[in-house]
Amino acid sequence: MPATPGNEFWRGLKPIAESFKPDALPEVYLPNAPIEDDRYYVPFSETVSSRPLWISPQQNKWCDILMAKSAGLVNRHYHPHEVFAFTLSGKWGYLEHDWIATRGDFVYETPGEGHTLVAYEHEEPMRVFFIVKGPLIWLDEDGKADGAFDVHDYIALCRDHYEKVGLGAAAVDALFR
User: Fold this and answer.
1) From CA 161, how far away is CA 125, in angstroms rounded?
2) Which residues are within 8 A (CB) of 43 and not within 5 positions of it... i.e. 6 or more apart?
3) Tens digit of pLDDT for each residue in 29-39?
4) Residue in 130, 157, 162, 2 with CA at minimum distance from that of residue 63
5) Strands (E) located in 97-173
6) What are the backbone angles phi and psi of residue 163, rounded to the nearest 5°?
7) What is the DSSP letter of 177?
8) What DSSP character marks residue 169?
């Protein structure tokens, strides 16, 4: 519980003594999730990187912050499951839509929608918090399936990068829930 004095009405409440059920895992707490340290961002394409925040191998799900410091591109793809996005900074969108997301914008991606994610030039880097469920199905120029990328590919990519930059693969494994 926070130790700073204040007038919050709940100050006298006693915390739950055993807040976790016997088989529950602890929360993931990452201060300053959109960190400036580039080592935490795993190259996802030549121009876009991903900071893993939470990973569920069993559910084929992950949360990350996608970042591009200048104009960027994630290859064409679609998701067979829903995806949620919240824009932290910068400017991004899909070539297939007429909207452009900026700070504070929320996007819900419907299952089966194909798109080409682009980051626009902006004074701030594009940083978007994503919740991804299931694989990304890569698409060719005609929108035909051309490969897949799931949580296990994401884990391998993150472990490899974290080892290379000195953070260690265990830093990725610590995000598993």
Assistant:
1) 21
2) 49, 161
3) 999 999 999 99
4) 130
5) 100-102, 106-109, 114-119, 126-133, 136-139, 145-149
6) -65, -45
7) -
8) T
Question: 80 near 109, Cβ under 8 Å?
Answer: no
Cα–Cα distance between 160 and 74 in angstroms, integer?
A: 20
Report pLDDT for 5: 65
Alpha-carbon gap, residue 168 to 160, rounded angstroms: 8
Using CA atoms, how far apart are residues 124 and 104, in angstroms rounded to an integer? 13
Low-confidence ranges of the chain (pLDDT < 50): none
**Nearest residue to 38 (alpha-carbon basis) of 51, 53, 54, 28:** 51
**Positive or negative torsion for Cα 77, 117, 158, 56:** negative
Q: What is the pLDDT of residue 3?
A: 59
